[in-house]
Amino acid sequence: MSTTLPISVVICAYTEQRWDDVHAAVASVRAQRHAPFEIIVVVDHNPALHARLKASLPDVTVVENREDRGLSGGKNTGVAVARGDVVAFLDDDAVAAPGWLEAFAGHYDDPKVAGVGGLTLPLWPGSTPSGALVDDPVPATTGTRPRWFPEEFDWTVGCTYRGLTPGPVRNVMGGNASFRRDMFPIAGGFSSGIGRSFHKRPLGCEETEFCIRLRQRSPGSELIYDDQAVIWHRVPSERARFAYFRERCYAEGLSKALVTQSVGSQDGLASERAHALRTLPRGVLAGVSDAVKGDRAGLGRAGAITVGLAWTAWGYAMGQYAARRRTRRSRRLVARAGPGDVRGREETT
């Protein structure tokens, strides 16, 4: 296992409301057994926060997002600044276990490994506050999970979901991920048209689209999920509510439609098909079985799985419909312009 692999850690921040969270995230990276080569905090179009973090974190590289607003632009900025052989990403409202980078580093002795992701566990409402995690990144309590909330849908709060097993995977989760830095020129950066930005809906999938694109352009590369690379991710109380759960599922469907437009439906939906056909039916049966045994919340979990799948599928259908409308509109504009006008436009762009 490599003990000297230089790993740059990128944390993207955007709001003063996560001030304690950001400092806890940075402290957890400083405490790694495999010391980071550098810590980079990218601030997303918030000059006041940039100035405050730069003053409070003098030993950290604090930079402003140089690209479009959102996670994709922030990550691309971090990669451009990074000097390590590997670039790791940690969410600004998460803390890493002391062995996080050590687990990542162990896989990069294999030249086929292009990226490694880890296990993300939820910090539910009532968990250890961020201020306490500055001194010790291991939470004393992880709070209370809503009894209706199915583990199969923990991805809706940015965490590892039931059904994901260690080993090779199609994509890793963006808030707990690492990639060889030399893969970015091959795959290209994160797409600014996908994922969290100034959009009101809680979109995602920028890391999914990036990972698929990486594998398509570098077919011999592997992406690995290692459940020993552990982080804890905070879940605010508003994201532990059913209304957010349903909205996040719908937004995921919209995001998946964007992903399939970029990389194709075969790769873009391969993992989702397996999850929907195998893991989710088992989850529904388990919920019903729990209810029969006296756990009434089991019916809530079974119902949430059913609603979550339906809302995700509905979001995907609406995303596909919107894409077809955009395509038809573009074709009509081209037809009205005529070949000469189109050729002239191409020559001037």
TrEMBL record:
The keyword Transmembrane helix does not apply. InterPro entries: Glyco_trans_2-like, Glycosyltransf_2, Nucleotide-diphossugar_trans. Gene3D superfamilies: Spore Coat Polysaccharide Biosynthesis Protein SpsA, Chain A. Residues 8-118 form the Glycosyltransferase 2-like domain. It comes from the Bacteria. It holds the Pfam family Glycos_transf_2. CDD domains: Glyco_tranf_GTA_type. PANTHER family: GLYCOSYLTRANSFERASE (PTHR43685), GLYCOSYLTRANSFERASE 2-LIKE DOMAIN-CONTAINING PROTEIN (PTHR43685:SF2). This is GT2 family glycosyltransferase. It comes from Actinomadura namibiensis.
